[in-house]
Amino acid sequence: MSLHGKSLIEGTPLPTSTKTFTAFDPRKGVSLEPNFHEANAADADVALNSAQAAFAAFRQKNSGERAIFLETIAAEIMALGDELLERAHQETGLLLDRLTGERGRTVGQLRLFAEVLREGSWCDVRIDTALPERTPLPRPDLRRILVPVGPVIVFGASNFPLAFSVAGGDTASALAAGCPVIVKGHPAHPGTSELVAGAVIKAAQSCGLPPGVFSLLQGSSHEIGTALVRHPKTRAVGFTGSHRGGRALLDAAAARPEPIPVFAEMGSLNPIFILPGALQERGAQIAEGLKNSITMGAGQFCTKPGLTFAIGGTDLEAFKSTIEPAIRSVAPGTMLHPGIRDAYVSSVNAALNTKGVNVLARSHAEADAGLTQGQAVLLDVSSDTFLAQPCLREEIFGPAGILVEARDMADLLQVAESLNGQLTASIHGTEADLDGAQELLYVLERKAGRLIINGFPTGVEVSPAMQHGGPYPATTDSRFTSVGTAAILRWVRPVCYQNFPAAALPPELRNENPLGLMRQINGKLGRESV
Amino acid sequence: MSLHGKSLIEGTPLPTSTKTFTAFDPRKGVSLEPNFHEANAADADVALNSAQAAFAAFRQKNSGERAIFLETIAAEIMALGDELLERAHQETGLLLDRLTGERGRTVGQLRLFAEVLREGSWCDVRIDTALPERTPLPRPDLRRILVPVGPVIVFGASNFPLAFSVAGGDTASALAAGCPVIVKGHPAHPGTSELVAGAVIKAAQSCGLPPGVFSLLQGSSHEIGTALVRHPKTRAVGFTGSHRGGRALLDAAAARPEPIPVFAEMGSLNPIFILPGALQERGAQIAEGLKNSITMGAGQFCTKPGLTFAIGGTDLEAFKSTIEPAIRSVAPGTMLHPGIRDAYVSSVNAALNTKGVNVLARSHAEADAGLTQGQAVLLDVSSDTFLAQPCLREEIFGPAGILVEARDMADLLQVAESLNGQLTASIHGTEADLDGAQELLYVLERKAGRLIINGFPTGVEVSPAMQHGGPYPATTDSRFTSVGTAAILRWVRPVCYQNFPAAALPPELRNENPLGLMRQINGKLGRESV
After folding, report:
1. Quick check: is A138 in a domain?
2. End-to-end Cα separation, chain A, in angstroms
3. Shortest Cα distance from B464 to chain A (angstroms)?
4. Minimal Cα–Cα distance from B86 to chain A, Å?
């Protein structure tokens, strides 16, 4: 299968502009064939118009039909076989094992949303039956359900070319909700994007869906992204990437005549607090876990722990002597892209040039810039330095961490209170440590979407209870998650049907409850019919 | 009980600035005693700091304790007796019967949220149990629950001095969620606000809550509102009022370093579509209902039907001859405030001065401006005029409606498609009409939060299935409602606890399910223990 390098709009490869860009093999330091055409604002307009047209038909498909669509996408992605993995490997430098796992996660979450649709209770049906005799006024019959919002724009992430990209969690959850999707492909893996988009389009065709239900726009410029967010037919935006990128989209969406929601996941520092008992009891084990969590995948995870806090003393000195050689022995990792590698190197240098910052440990082997490598590094600062230097609160995307030494628990609490919003926050502690950490837990609950005891934040489960979203600047809307089944709630809004005849109601709202949903009837939850 | 005219911050009347304003009796055309002091940015800062301090204690109260607090507020409001109703009557011109009903609604919704808290399942608990043996990676124990976001600012509305004001739906739902509330009182009924705030403060005291859990800031300027929205400790905003006011707050919130959600309900045109069969079969009955819905309470409801669409012909001529005398006989109503009356008169004049707009009917009696009266009026335009004149899409707050004559069903569909977001949309139709109206229903579902068959939009039930919120510009966030039990979802965000020891979990998340909640365990809904 050869790549055509075009955007896929309404199921068709369109040449779009003559301006092109290429992918890059970070492991070899060379550009990859073919040229990819940059989509422009006119392409965005075509894609949105066709998405809007498709929405009318797509929203009328029932949950079972949408479930089959998701499962068909999963099957078509698997049918791409090794070619997909090989192209993704070339474009990202990620190893085939990792990509095989990521493909499993991607098709797994498509199938998980199919299950959610078949169970069906996610749409939060509420029925208040009429009270015609009530005085002074009768109560009408009211029936509420969640309905899809309309065309959704998805911005793929660089670090998960499958699971957070063209057919990743944002796309899967939006299609599950009944929203057409337009993906702005990440420019670092356009070939992977083209292959996966082809799979989605084949699935739409074989499920008899209108072609506007899915489009892929290729592009490396900010302009195409902004044009998509500003388009009057766009109803919501999903994004995974940098704070700068996410905030720009949020601001563009907020400035529209008709503002729309932007769900941007913009990374995080994922602070870890090591309490004294745990540091004493199993400092070496925690050091090993921390080293792994910081350096896994060359640190290119939004849940990489960028900050670790502990109280100074002999136990912390022992911890440092354990982690120092562990970090030193980490081989420089291939990063996703020279741009990301350059940003990593300058972020580390900016931190190093900050007064009071020391290098605790660093990969012994040199990084080869031509092969897009980055060294692991662990920096060491006092809590006073941390509180005084705002630049230490900026995410360093790559295998770097900062160890912050506090004086005592009060000092730990103060640094915790000073933190911005986070995706996660972790505490390592013995039972006795945790008994005394209630206040710290309350502070961190205000700061983070996921709180972890005696674990590390990397590894985000795709499941009903996952929360991948925290207070700003971790995400733009901490009321929602971008991972797990609750992610579908980003793409819907409630509608109440008042005094509708049975024939005009969707099956979810009918008296007899033909789908067997859990519903709230006059305030009581149950699977009964009315 | 005499009014002190001061803001109530941390449970104490504070003098704030020396700048003052007064309330006004619209039925007599005179100012009312006493002077009310304008709160300023320094007061906002004190209120937010005390709210933030109170949050730590308030969020740790369990659901039962919060329920008692809400019920105690309801009891304290009732204990204010006739004095409250009389002051509200003086300040708004609303009649005592109406205000008695509104007080019932206000205490009713406080008690309804207490019931929601006692039932408890609203907090959407999801538990994924650990899978320690899973390969390649074990699954940790994940438990998710909704937690309060923190201090909330509530802007009271002028047209519901009790139910959408100091202890109205926004305040009740935010306190239910566990958020401290700061109300910016509406300047048209400061005495009513002071009385109700006193009741809330008494309830907080008798429930042993920290005083920062509730404050009332009095003020007539935009500055104090903006200062509250911009304050770094503010976490969310509820507003009911004009589009201009709501959008200004939304923009201020979006421009913060850390943007926060604004839930602004900004009114609506609430279109009504009368289909041909219904027009023929029961035009007279619909005319009577429409007249009542437009003129009830001098048209000062956010669900007042401002636009009515029907197809021209003899049935519509008959309809017009029925509604014309009905509107003519409506006595001019007392409006809430001279400012609102002036805005009403100029909005009607602006519509009248638009090319192609005719007066179909108008109150026979003159309106007395000194007594703040407004005449009922029904305007008449063609669909071409409606499509050509954007000014006809602006809400006229008061007893005015516009009848739009379409040529045929295709024309009706076109005007429906041209509508902005609405709180409600209604269709009057026979069974045969509705069978042919599927496309119209789909269009209107994209436009409105509540769809009504053979009814009128005024009258908003406070119940689980209500949706009071539609696409922009009806509200700033159509994913939420400001009326009904789901309103609590505006003030919470999910948090996931990973690998927490049982002792550190809130009761909602414990294995044994001590509160008997409906929970999702490994994706299955039920009230079982783990």
Report:
1. no
2. 54
3. 6
4. 22
- Whether residues A160 and A66 share a domain: the answer is yes
Write out the residue range of the structural domain in which residue A296 sits: 272-453
Which residue in B508, B487, B492, B490 sits closest to B110, CA to CA? B487
Torsion, Cα B496 B502 B505 B510, to 10 degrees, reads 90
What six digits make up the tokens of B369? 């401006």
- The residue among B211, B353, B502 whose CA lies nearest residue A453 is B502
Confidence at residue B17, expressed as pLDDT on a 0 to 100 scale: 83
How many domains are contained in chain A? Answer: 2
CB pairs under 8 A between A and B: 211
Does B229 share its domain with B279? no
Residue A120 and residue A221 share a domain: yes
A-chain CB neighbours of B420 within 8 Å are 258
* Judgement on whether residues B306 and B251 belong to the same structural domain of the protein: no
Which pair of tokens denotes residue B436? 């042919």
The answer to whether residue B78 sits within a structural domain is: yes
How far apart are the C-alpha atoms of A167 and A157, rounded to whole Å?
11
Rounded-to-integer distance, Cα A163 and Cα A171, Å: 10
What ipTM is given for this predicted complex? 0.97
Residues of B in contact with A142 (CB under 8 A): 461, 463, 465-466
Determine if the pTM surpasses 0.95.
yes
The identity of residue A115, as a single letter, is E
Report the chain B residue with the minimal C-alpha distance to residue A445. Answer: B495
Interchain CB distance below 8 Å, A492 and B485: no
- The answer to whether residue A502 is domain-embedded is no
Closest by Cα among A81, A98, A27, A73 to A198: A73
Binary contact (A465, B520; C-beta < 8 A)? yes
- List phi, psi (to 5°) of B450: -135, 130
pLDDT value of residue A200: 98
| B147 with A479: Cβ contact below 8 A | no
Could you tell me the CATH number of the domain that includes residue A109? Answer: 3.40.605.10
SS3 of B291, please? helix
Cis peptide before A473 (omega within 30 of 0): yes
Measure in Å the smallest separation between the Cα of B315 and chain A Cα atoms.
25
In a domain, B343, yes or no: yes
Rounded CA gap, B36 and B44, in Å?
A: 16
Question: Are A101 and A243 within one domain?
Answer: yes
Please give the residue of chain A at the shortest CA–CA distance from B261: A477
β A152-155/B448-453 pair status: unpaired
Splitting chain A (530 residues) into consecutive groups of 10 residues, what average pLDDT does each group show? Answer: 91 88 96 96 97 95 97 98 98 97 98 98 98 93 98 96 98 98 98 98 98 97 95 98 96 98 96 98 98 97 97 98 98 96 97 96 96 97 97 95 98 97 98 96 97 97 97 97 98 98 96 98 97
| A376 and A429 within one domain | yes
User: Mind telling me the catalytic residues of B?
Assistant: 265, 302
The answer to whether B310 and B350 have CB atoms below 8 angstroms apart is no
Secondary structure letter of residue B372 according to DSSP: T
For residue B144, which residues of chain A lie inside 8 Å, CB to CB?
464-467, 486
Q: What CA–CA distance (Å, rounded) separates B296 from B292?
A: 6
Query: Between the CA of residue A133 and those of A121, A138, B307, B464, what are the distances in Å?
Result: 31, 6, 30, 19
- Two tokens at B220? 């007539």
Of B307, B253, B216, the C-alpha closest to B5 is B216
* A326/A295 same-domain check: yes
CATH code for position B357? 3.40.309.10
Q: How many Å apart are CA B298 and CA B98, to the nearest integer?
A: 12
CB A149 within 8 Å of CB A493: yes
Comparing CA positions, the residue from B125, B214, B120, B210 lying closest to residue B175 is: B214
Q: Give, to the nearest 10 degrees, the angle between helix B243-254 and helix B222-230.
A: 30
Low-confidence ranges of chain B (pLDDT < 70): 1
A96/A159 same-domain check: yes
Please tell me the distance from the alpha carbon of residue A319 to that of residue A310, in angstroms, as a whole number.
Answer: 10
